[in-house]
Design goal:
about 0% strand; single chain; 3 helices
Length: about 100
């Protein structure tokens, strides 16, 4: 499960959208958590492991649920980032319209 880790926001981005700071930290913690769970339960990301060979423990099932929830949360974070970008573009366009004579 190799995904690029989000880059740190610039000071300008922080000033414009301070929530990016906590979202960025959350993304890093999710990545660290996923890597840890995969280290403990490598079969979480191995599609070649037959269902009958998967660890039946409660911890492994809980880890699987965490991985799935993290995936959904990452998608929602990306949707929020996209919405922020679109809002920023809309505001920039309005500002340009207001300034043109």
């Amino acid at each position: 499960m190799k995904r690029p880790i989000a880059s740190l926001p610039t000071p300008e981005q922080i000033a414009e959208t301070p929530e990016l700071v906590t979202l960025n930290a959350l993304e890093h913690m999710l990545e660290l958590t996923l890597r840890t769970l995969i280290g403990v339960h490598p079969d979480l990301v191995d599609p070649d492991v037959p269902y009958w060979a998967i660890d039946p423990s409660r911890a492994r099932r809980a880890a699987h649920r965490l991985v799935m929830a993290a995936s959904h949360l990452e998608a929602r974070i990306q949707q929020y980032r996209t919405a922020l970008d679109l809002d920023r573009q809309t505001n920039d366009d309005r500002l340009e319209d207001d300034l043109s004579f």
